[in-house]
């Protein structure tokens, strides 16, 4: 009798285990009906567990400089706020729907590149030779892969080129005609150089050339004679984002410096200076006097302080912008987001065009220091 009971017990346990295995062999959608899921780009549906969460957020900038309320017309202020909101909501919707931080960064920057309000894409400043030359970069915090382009003249959206360099080439940075050629080969949108012409930017160049001075797009010390430059836009654009999979990304796009010569390249396409992203720490996009951001490796320095000194994002950003950069003589700022979704906009100028949205849909838009 004992043997019969034992055999029946074994059969019962075996049957129960088999049923349990069926649960793990079933369709993921059926297994996790009561668990939040994310649908990936390839159609795969995965449950949210300790490796993933609903947390996501996005932050952008449209340049930093001497941006004072007393010099800003109500119409212009409204125009900037509306465009900043339009741009960041594009990225927010991508993240909300489970899209990647890389896509959110790219599409958000596209909106600002297509606007003449900012010194990027359509609104790019003019070089000494009266051309428009664009720089851009992007970085993936998950893989530390990065792409950048410099000195392009026919690519409608330079941030798309930077992303293509990262994903479709073995290189990190391409420049000049070669970068334009690569963009065309990749099927990116190509435009005639005159697409980037804007009357206000052109007039600014003429005023500067008449004075025989170089005007840094983010610095007004050499443009006191030009109220349009001094009080209006300082333009480099950038974005940092955290997606639902916990991946960080950052990107930056610019037209550089008004009246620049000799193929000058600023910090925007330099990984570690204008852009940096690392899932272990943060994602950063810079805007300011490029030469100083390159010397200070500003974007990477913030990440390094977090990694090696265990500083918070806020502490690291303040140390780099308010102390290191300021002591070097540089002006400008950064927007950044850490691996937990905390966001910071830090700058040592009178203002910086900026906006944030968190996973609760809470929108914040700022222009001035206070």
Would you summarize the structure shown here?
The chain is 37% helix and 22% strand. It is built from eleven helices and 14 strands.
Question: How is the topology of this model organized?
Answer:
Blueprint: H1 2-25, H2 28-31, E1 37-39, E2 45-47, E3 57-65, H3 74-96, H4 101-113, E4 134-140, E5 146-152, H5 158-168, E6 173-175, H6 176-185, H7 199-211, H8 227-231, E7 237-242, E8 248-254, E9 275-277, E10 282-288, H9 290-296, H10 298-309, H11 313-328, E11 332-338, E12 343-347, E13 351-358, E14 363-368
Parallel strand pairs: 5-6
Antiparallel strand pairs: 1-2, 3-7, 3-13, 4-5, 4-8, 7-8, 9-10, 10-11, 11-12, 13-14
Helix pairs in contact: 3-4, 4-5, 10-11
Low-confidence parts lasting 5 or more residues at pLDDT below 50? 10-52, 213-233
The CATH superfamily of the largest domain is (Glycosyl)asparaginase
The major β-sheet equals: 8 strands, mixed
Question: Which architecture of the largest domain would the CATH scheme give at its second level?
Answer: 4-Layer Sandwich
Number of DSSP helices? Answer: 11
Task: List the domain count as a whole number.
Answer: 2
Overall geometry: globular
Per the CATH scheme, the topology name of the largest domain is Glutamine Phosphoribosylpyrophosphate, subunit 1, domain 1
Amino- and carboxy-terminal Cα gap: 86 Å
Structural class: alpha+beta
Residues in helices, as a percent range = 25-40%
Q: Main sheet: which strands, in order across?
A: 6-5-4-8-7-3-13-14
CATH class of the largest domain: Alpha Beta
Query: What do the pLDDT scores average to?
Result: 85
Order of helices and strands: HHEEEHHEEHEHHHEEEEHHHEEEE
Percent of residues in beta strands: 15-25%
Rg over CA atoms: 24 Å
Please tally the β strands and state the result.
14
């Amino acid at each position: 009798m004992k043997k019969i009971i034992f055999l029946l017990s074994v059969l019962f346990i075996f049957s129960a285990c088999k049923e349990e295995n069926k649960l793990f062999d079933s369709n993921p959608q059926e297994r996790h009906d009561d668990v939040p899921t994310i649908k990936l780009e390839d159609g795969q549906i995965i449950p949210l567990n300790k490796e993933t969460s609903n947390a996501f957020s996005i932050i952008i900038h449209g340049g930093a400089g001497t941006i004072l309320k007393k010099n800003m017309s109500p119409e212009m202020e409204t125009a900037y706020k509306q465009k900043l909101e339009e741009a960041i909501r594009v990225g927010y919707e991508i993240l909300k729907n489970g899209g990647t931080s890389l896509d959110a960064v790219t599409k958000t920057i596209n909106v600002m590149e297509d606007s003449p309000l900012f010194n990027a894409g359509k609104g790019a400043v003019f070089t000494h030779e009266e051309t428009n030359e664009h720089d851009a970069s992007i970085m993936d915090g998950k893989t530390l892969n990065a792409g950048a382009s410099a000195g392009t003249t026919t690519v409608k959206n330079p941030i798309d080129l930077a992303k293509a360099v990262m994903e479709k080439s073995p290189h990190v940075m391409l420049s000049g005609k070669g970068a334009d050629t690569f963009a065309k080969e990749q099927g990116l949108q190509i435009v005639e150089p005159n697409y980037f012409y804007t009357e206000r930017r052109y007039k600014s160049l003429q005023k500067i050339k008449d004075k025989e001075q170089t005007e840094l797009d983010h610095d007004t010390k050499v443009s006191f004679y030009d109220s349009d430059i001094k009080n209006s836009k300082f333009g480099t654009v950038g974005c940092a984002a955290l997606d639902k999979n916990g991946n960080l990304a950052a990107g930056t796009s610019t037209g550089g410096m008004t009246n620049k010569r000799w193929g000058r390249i600023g910090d925007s396409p330099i990984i570690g200076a204008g852009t940096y992203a690392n899932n272990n720490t943060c994602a950063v996009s810079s805007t300011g006097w490029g030469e100083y951001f390159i010397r200070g490796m500003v974007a990477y320095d913030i990440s390094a302080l977090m990694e090696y000194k265990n500083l918070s994002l806020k502490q690291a950003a303040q140390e780099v912008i308010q102390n290191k950069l300021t002591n070097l003589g540089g002006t400008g700022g950064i927007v950044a987001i850490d691996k937990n979704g905390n966001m910071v906009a830090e700058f040592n100028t009178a203002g910086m065009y900026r906006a944030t949205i968190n996973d609760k849909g809470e929108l914040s838009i700022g222009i001035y220091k206070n």
